[in-house]
């Protein structure tokens, strides 16, 4: 009986190890250079630069190059990011599509808020300049450098998301360090002031005094009739949502495969 149990236990461990191996090996590399644009040393440098961003955003950023993609660049980038980290997780990917001559940045999770439309446009400016000069490594570095800088700056004040399909605007409230400190100081001052005023007013010990509400309470009921005399209808114009890529403090989003993505692209 013991020998049978030991055999079953060993079989179970073997099965788990076989199932686990492909899962570990399936991790998406930070740099997927299908088009062969980078040297091994350049890929190592990009990996290190990306890892610093990953630690800040608690997510992952990627770079993928291809010369055989037949999908729309946006669809390809969204699918790549979703397959790498899942829907609505923190991350972004830079696609360098050499076949369609297209640059595209797809964002997900908190990177949608860090990389607003305006920031993506600025990043694409730098990447485009390097791509048109065939400086592919510099283009990838420009993407990572810009992304890292924007993460350090934080989500811009007054930030919002705009759904490109419905026009729905979702506001994002950011508390700065100064605002947090001011709020804590005011709360402390008001709390102390409330305590001091009440103690000085009553000078009572807790639990020794009870208000004689039965003797001092009184109630008087009267008839009251409410009558509607006028009614008004107020109308206002709802402003049109900004178009995709219009910049400002917002991020234009779209749905793909059950997830929400931001991003933008440019031909080169």
TrEMBL record:
InterPro entries: TPM_dom. Keywords: Membrane, Signal, Transmembrane, Transmembrane helix. Coiled coil: none annotated. Pfam families: TPM_phosphatase. Residues 246-268 have a biased composition (Gly residues). Residues 236-268 are annotated as: Disordered. Residues 31-147 form the TPM domain. The chain crosses the membrane at residues 174-197. Residues 1-26 form the signal peptide. This is TPM domain-containing protein.
